[in-house]
């Protein structure tokens, strides 16, 4: 097998399929490696002059920092980061998605709620409006272990949703609005069968103001507890256990029935990326999302700072110029937000990404955007807003995975698909996470955390289309109740992380 992978005829770099030692011939490129090249890293495929564009997938990922002979190891030490010109071509490549008629769409075994929404899981949640209620929420939820839930086999768990905010912050404005709609989105989520909301009583995120603003009505499936009114922590914990205990019989009264795949909404995430992520797991997930869209479902692409430099690949296929402009507006917000800071959007990726072969954010974005496939961009949402449009949509979020996924779930994602090259142990509730490995060595090393190996593409054993179909089928099985690896391990309740936008007071 050729030791290097060529991604486009116009590229002036190729990617090492596995670690290449200095002097190793690369016959297909008529060159030999001049230095040791780690797996997933790049080699110059021809002479590249100083200042010349470095092309991967025929897209600019930087500029040569020096004259580079063929066979040179290409990475952040000799690829200079710089701005690139982008032609947004708003909606010029828009083509309506080819949607299957309802009778031909794939199905899964879902939970149909009274209002017609479809769930993939069935949780009871204990929420806090501020961090002061966190201990009570955790102790109440932890009480309902497997033994105490044995009589309620249809309940997936009682989980706490705790966070570090709710007080010492602006009382009104964007930070408070964002926090409130994030919590409310999880309370309203179809995967939430019942909710208890706990407050200390003096938070700036006042519990009654929160309920009123989010139009949440207290009733059998939504209860409240105020620690200062209940008589303290011990009394709150005892009463909280009673409230949850009373909710469980009703929450258990569900059954799974065949549902159209149009009811699946997948939040797309990548973390611990490497040089193979954009070659295997991300584009294979894109194939799966094109299949989901074809079956009437929804894919939420996010992590705005991680599509920087390739946002024009989305604006050109936006359903309207207005949708494309909204994406550009959010990108400009991020550029202003990060001005003068040592952050990813200004060039430097994390040490793990860098070690995995990604030279800068342009290269990372090139691979990350591929998770959305080739479907038209139908809408752009701000963080944690309800997603109502089917098809491929974009939600503005940070690149930090727990914060990003929390916003997607608040918006209605009932499943998260997470690609990784270095290895991630992420999990989420109430929507489950499936993890897709970009390379076989990492998959074999972390089999208890990875749901599917996309490294077979790099190994030459499967095509993108093959693995994309496998991912789509994995999503259908997981939405039907099959536990993901992160669920088996017990991850998710600590990854609820509303975006801490703004400055603490």
TrEMBL record:
GO terms for molecular function: lyase activity. It comes from the Bacteria. It holds the Pfam family GD_AH_second. Keywords: Lyase. Residues 11-80 form the SAF domain. Gene3D superfamilies: 2.30.130.110. GO terms for biological process: D-galacturonate catabolic process. The keyword Lyase applies. Belongs to the UxaA family. This is Altronate dehydratase family protein. It comes from Polaromonas hydrogenivorans. The lineage of its organism: Bacteria, Pseudomonadati, Pseudomonadota, Betaproteobacteria, Burkholderiales.
